[in-house]
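Box 3.1 A note on notation
Throughout this textbook, protein chains are presented in two layers. The first layer is the amino acid sequence; the second is a token string describing backbone geometry. Keep the layers aligned when reading.
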Amino acid sequence: LLWVGSTAAALAIGWCSVRPTTCVDISECKEQLEAVPGLLNAGVVCGLVTIFLHELVGCITNYMTAKPLETVIDGVMDAFLPSVLVSVTFGVLILENADLYLGTD
């Protein structure tokens, strides 16, 4: 409960101090975004592929490390489940952004 409260307080302080605006609210940014939407999605796909590969390598490394310990430590194989879920999430995001990139003119 303390963690949730401190995280919410940090978020509120950060939001109030920065007060971010969206790109649509700034005319120069909106023009640039409309000019290169495909390029933006291509960059997102490249970044997501990089993060996906990093998580996948971490997941494989965790599996190879935990496999010999499976008989000694009960439930050790469950330790890398979050990495698998994050990898699946990044995979879905890659597919969605690739579709947006390939669907642009």
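Residues 13 and 74 are 42 Å apart (CA to CA). The longest helix spans residues 37-66.
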